[in-house]
Design brief:
mainly alpha; two-stranded antiparallel sheet; elongated
């Protein structure tokens, strides 16, 4: 099988699993609504910037990549 096709299939499968976990896990872990996320609501405008959620996701992904490289 072509390596690019294999990479696309694996990448798609990973995205599907992440999407399912996000959908199911969103009920238990309030990503996107953590304390420290910036929400500004005016009359007809809502500005939302999930800074703390971005930091948490970055730390988790960095730790995961570190462990992946460590055990590879």
């Amino acid at each position: 099988m072509n390596p690019v096709a294999k990479l696309l299939i694996i990448g798609g499968a990973v995205l599907i699993v992440i999407g399912l976990l996000w959908q199911v896990g969103g009920r238990f872990l309030p990503l996107g609504r953590l304390p420290g996320d910036i929400v500004v609501e005016k009359e007809n405008v809502k500005f939302y910037f999930p800074i703390v959620t971005c930091i948490v996701i970055s730390i988790v992904l960095s730790l995961g990549m570190y462990l992946f490289r460590l055990f590879k």
